[in-house]
Task: structure prediction
Amino acid sequence: MTDQDKQTLIEFPCDFPIKVMGETRDDFAETIIAVIREQLPDFAAGAIEMRASSGGHFISLTCTVHVTSKPQLDDIYRTLTSHPLVKVVL
Result:
């Protein structure tokens, strides 16, 4: 365990759910999968739950990623939050 891993309550490796929200677009899920695969090439599309907002203008994806370290998880968050289609990452 590295010093960075000790700075979190999360035990690695683990499956970690990340919620990604953006405007509803036909290619939103495919785009988010591609962004995650930049960090995790084996990320499976089946690890996503999709939900539309009540008005249908927004979509949220809960992407469960298998991460091995805090830096890896941080990199995924940074990549997602910097993408122009993404409004919020939780």
